[in-house]
Amino acid sequence: MMMKDRWIALYVENDVGVLAKISGLFAGKAYNLNSLTVGTTEDEGVSRMTIASTCDDLTFEQIKKQLNRMVEVIKVMDLTDTPIHMKEVMFAKVKKCSETDKAEVFRIAEVFSVQVVDIGTDSMLLECMLTERRNNELIRLLKARFSAVEIVRGGGVAIESISTSCR
Asked: Which of 12, 21, 53, 138 has its CA at a distance of 20 to 30 angstroms from the CA of residue 46?
């Protein structure tokens, strides 16, 4: 079976233990969970989760069915083939920087349209809100140019497109 990147958005009750139950579903069935982000919506009693997973068609159908059976799940949306806008939060710390290195980090930040949010005597911190692909490209470039790079990533957050533009 062909493995494919998949995205699901869930509306769930904003109650204690819901996140644990959903992540437990993935762990218990040995499903691959690439990322999971969660936050409240305009309704404080409802949270929206964005889940990224890599799996085959059969496994993905099982995941959706099992999520739909959970009492706390209000709605399951398969975003895999839907036009969406998706961004991922990432922080990149470049350490052991010379003054020349710092100038290069500023140039890279400008090209990638990311913010330099902190700077020290020998390090810089970038705040990025890019697509997963763009964040991957930035990481590869930083690691190729600098000896000490620390990365912290959050999962992707997605919303359906209003127009027809895609990821």
From this structure: 53
pLDDT category, 34, cuts 50, 70, 90?
A: confident
> Which residues, other chains included, contact 137 with Cβ-Cβ below 8 Å and sequence gap of 6+?
112
Give dist(CA 3, CA 6) in Å, integer: 9
Cβ count near 22 (within 10 Å):
22
pLDDT in tens, 79-118: 998 888 899 999 999 999 999 999 999 999 999 999 999 9
- Is 49 in contact with 22 (CB distance < 8 Å)? yes
Hey, which residues does 125 pair with through a beta bridge?
93, 118
Nearest CA to 55 among 47, 64, 46? 64
